[in-house]
What we know:
The chain is α/β, with parallel strands linked by helices. It contains 19 helices and 27 strands. The strands form five sheets. Strands 3-2-4-1-10-9-11-15 form an eight-stranded antiparallel beta sheet, with helices on one face. Strands 5-6-7-8-12-13-14 form a seven-stranded antiparallel beta sheet, with helices on one face. β20, α12 and β21 (370-374) form a beta-alpha-beta unit. α10 packs antiparallel against α17 (477-491). It is globular, with a radius of gyration of 25 Å.
Amino acid sequence: MCGIVGYTGKRSAGNILIEGLKRLEYRGYDSAGIAVHEQEGIACVRSVGRIADLENRLSGTAISGSVGIAHTRWATHGSPSEANAHPHTDCKGNIYLVHNGIIENCDKLREQLKKEGHTFVSETDTEVIVHLVEKYFEGDLADAVRKALKKLIGTYGVAVICRQCPDTVVVARNGSPIVVGVGDDEYFVASDVAALVEHTKQIIYLDDNEIGVLRPNGFESLTIDNVPTTKNVTEVDWDIDMIGLDGFDAFMAKEIHEQPETIAAAFRGRLYNKECEARLGGLMDLGKTFFETQRIIISACGTAWHAALVGECMIEDMARIPVEVEYASEFRYRNPIIEPGTIVLVISQSGETADTLAAMREAKRRGIPALAISNVVGSTIARESDAGVYIHAGPEIGVASTKAFTSQVVVLYLISLMLGRAKGIGAAEGIKLIRALESIPDQVRRVLETEEQVKALAHKYYTKAENSLFLGRGYNFPIALEGALKLKEISYVHAEGYPAAEMKHGPIALITEDMPVVFIAIQDSIYDKILVNMEEVKARGGKVIAVATEGDTSIADRADDVIYVPHAPERLTPLLTVVPLQLLAYHVAKMKGCDVDKPRNLAKSVTVE
């Protein structure tokens, strides 16, 4: 969740580090800090608040060194304060360290170190690590870091500098991502590729329990047990232009409007009209393991979990294979029954979500094939899965996921089509399914043309709505969940999503006069049922907002406001109905003065439990 940036080379480190932190602002943070080698020692400045506050603290301070580390912190141990901000240092101010993750045995280690004479000035678990490095330092920083890490229980991504090693940055990871960028006689460090692509596309991904030693003249890596390792350099497939705003006032807005292109990118080159089927190379290689599976467990968190629910409907409908959808955070800690013939499919935009990674590893530990849907090439989940599919959505910066969600749904549709054709869907039906998907990008463009109408709707309700309900059925029940989540995430309006028929089993008690209730009421196989649910809300004074199918002339008689989407096969309607709900959440949040790209208490990639 926090952000790490580091640099060693010939250039001035200060600007590189600050600009890198700005690229990571979307990850969520409450304080920031920087430490840079200077002739007199290491200069360190920290500040509570935004990176702009740190820049103000640095104003007039000449930080000219060419080696340094920086950090944005999201509080776990200890409240947001300057004392708890990173980098942290040892007793003598010789060693500085930044850390993402959680050290579970920090209390025990702190007490031991205090008895040995170490003085602590923060409430953080991180400070324990830097004092351990101090304890073991005898001139070799990498060796001291290695010995310190062996004492830790928990997760970490760390970057360390030391006054006695003026050209060196030591990094390490266990459960929290660290990537190294390769330049010309310079190396960069970050917890996310977004901080590096301005300078290099050549990336080295550290594995768990691995340490990297960076100097301007070279990079070396070793395990925590002091065994040298060999690392491959990967070239990232996007550049700095892809993480600009392109005229939009927020990344979320940009990413909502990118969906026609990102949906097309998710299926481009994967549809075969002549064979009337889809092909996903990473899964095709599994052969019988994939095509003869008897049961699928999909595990994910947050928005990806909602995509998984749509995927459950698709796979069971098209391939007639039973599917279970599990919260990754629950799957990893219970004792699920996993029979032979089962595969586990995990979904994570970042490929670094801690709970999802742990769920995948649990499946692999049990000898079950673990497949992955991810957006980030080289991410831990992508590297460790037995097979996988990239969604090709490009970098998603906004904390509230939008384009990644629709791309994940597209990939799940492709998987359903692959399995469905293998299980008996005929060629004629297969080509119909392909044609329908190929039409979706243009249909999403038409939905985006309703933005002014959605904006007016947001203006109508944003001052009144302290609570709201989102209701859907079948394929669009997960979209009700997703619409509610988006509103909660970025506007802080309390919203809940339910299957529409479940409303009368409890939630109907919440309906009051003028309470907004959003229905996804498209003309599908259960359209008549949802009309009855709408009448139940109207009878109790609630305000009905309907997302309906173009040409539906009767829906306006039952709804206070209607947003229309094009007609599409039922399986694909989630790709259309979710878009106005994304826009609604965005405009409500903007009108309430919320920071849509950096909502409070949230981070883009949840890399800790």
